[in-house]
């Protein structure tokens, strides 16, 4: 891929994604797949005004070794230096950039129960730090191609050509055009206008119906509103948390979800794929899951904590999004969730509450925002899905017909 195009992408992440302000610190989390691009991104972060940029690399084979050889107690321990680092993040609020390139099957064979036990033990220590940072900092998830991920999408191509092909798909769906900033300004406006219409309806519940068996109703929080595209932190800084993004999303009322939904794309979770699955809800809770592949992993996921079996997000995405029109199944949630309507189990978004700026996190959760250590999106949209909104004054308004916006 041409360096000039990669630099445009890096500049987009730094200036439109996290929107670095002069003097801010930046933390980049990534894998080992594209060191040259990481170098370009670090340069663009400094050019955007960053005071300090730190890069943390991950590597799936090392994760597998750690889980194999460490005890649960060792994995779960949060060392004093790690607490000090978390406190530094609370105090400084660095911009966070996550570059996704993992192999969708990269943790196949790992001891999921052991890893989950360690996460459950460490989470109560980490959670207070995370809650203190909620909605206060800018963050952005973007992607670069990893070799194994590229070969998963394009198995018939040699590795180099597969990586180039995945680069093309990432850049196209991320709107890296001649003028990416202008393209994103226009896209943000379209998503904002759609959210404004949805919020004007006064939606009490959404009803999903699909010819694949999906028959599902979810209740809304009266104080909640749809959001999409860019967001504004509590520090007053506008940023785009996902590149790409196509969704209008809202956090539903915890405890108000009934019926069954069928996934329309595989779910990549903890480095493994869960495929051909369904989830049935009663009184808002996932009470039954079925999967043709990795059902045990799905069951482990919804039992991570009490909130893991409740919904944290409902997102609306038309089937004619650029990602969907690419015809690719990315095996990556960042992309696949923006090709189809989706739901998320786990943590909800406090910033979907109107006036959240003047409320505490606890007050937002008391209104019905779900709390959990996980937030996992799974895709349910396709051309056979219809969605209706039932408004608080009793009207039924079509939102989606055959997978497309109905307005």
Features:
globular, alpha+beta, 20 strands
Briefly characterize the structure:
The protein is α+β, with helices and mostly antiparallel strands and 407 residues long.
Secondary structure topology:
Elements: H1 3-17, E1 25-31, H2 35-47, E2 52-58, H3 60-69, H4 72-76, H5 80-92, E3 95-100, H6 112-133, E4 139-143, H7 147-153, H8 159-173, H9 180-200, E5 203-210, E6 215-220, E7 227-228, E8 231-232, E9 238-239, E10 248-250, E11 252-262, E12 267-269, E13 272-282, E14 285-293, H10 295-301, E15 311-316, H11 322-325, H12 333-336, E16 342-346, H13 361-366, E17 375-379, E18 385-391, E19 396-401, E20 404-405
Parallel strand pairs: 1-2, 1-3, 3-4
Antiparallel strand pairs: 5-6, 5-18, 6-11, 7-10, 8-9, 10-15, 11-13, 12-13, 13-14, 15-16, 16-17, 18-19, 19-20
Structure, described:
By secondary structure, the protein is an alpha+beta fold. Helix content is 35%, strand content 28%. The chain is built from 13 helices and 20 strands. The strands form 4 sheets. Strands 5, 6, 11, 12, 13, 14, 18, 19 and 20 form a 9-stranded antiparallel β-sheet that branches. Helix 2 links the parallel strand 1 and strand 2 (52-58). 44% of the residues are buried.
